[in-house]
């Protein structure tokens, strides 16, 4: 059992598609996708952590980083306990954490970050995606340019600086304006050697990762995040 979770971080501004890609990758054997939304939806309001979270949320305040990370760690231990996550042979694909520098430091004792996928797209493209998603999912607040601008500013001010704290050779920058299947192909090209190394397989130097592995229910038409 590893001391820390082998981790792939998905980074990108709102509308870059990281949520969509994370869900697809999570369907590949050996990879477990997890987003911050998962822990919030799983909260037991009768638990101490659940009560603390809703105290802040009920006042419209941001939940302190310490509580957010403690909730996430508790959630992950629960997944291990019920055999939904197997850190000895699975990679954790994280979407939405860490959101800022403080969260990064709070997670250093838990995450062994082995690759960072940074999905990049121009601002206009991400605005277009968010507006389209808002209409499709009836999230009309996200259709507001003011709200979108605010989210972009938060990403640039709080989340983007986290990348500077990791070794640059771990970061793979991917053009998120490509089709979803091409973005997935770029990501998988990084994941294949990592997974084969964990499985003890020798990766042929002449063999690229041009072909996607067989994955169950490989849907690529999800909504970009």
Mind explaining what this structure looks like?
The structure is a single chain. The protein is an alpha/beta fold. It has helices spanning 18-25, 36-41, 48-58, 65-81, 101-107, 123-136, 145-159, 180-198; strands at residues 5-12, 31-35, 91-95, 111-120, 171-175. The chain has a domain at 5-33 and 89-198: P-loop containing nucleotide triphosphate hydrolases (Rossmann fold), CATH 3.40.50.300. The chain has a 5-stranded parallel sheet with strand order 2-3-1-4-5. The two termini are 33 Å apart.
Distance between the termini: 33 Å
Overall CATH architecture of one domain: 3-Layer(aba) Sandwich
Strand line-up in the sheet with most strands:
2-3-1-4-5
- Could you give the count of β-strands? 5
In short:
The protein has helices spanning 18-25, 36-41, 48-58, 65-81, 101-107, 123-136, 145-159, 180-198; strands at 5-12, 31-35, 91-95, 111-120, 171-175. The protein has 225 residues and is α/β, with parallel strands linked by helices. The model is unreliable at 208-225 (pLDDT under 50).
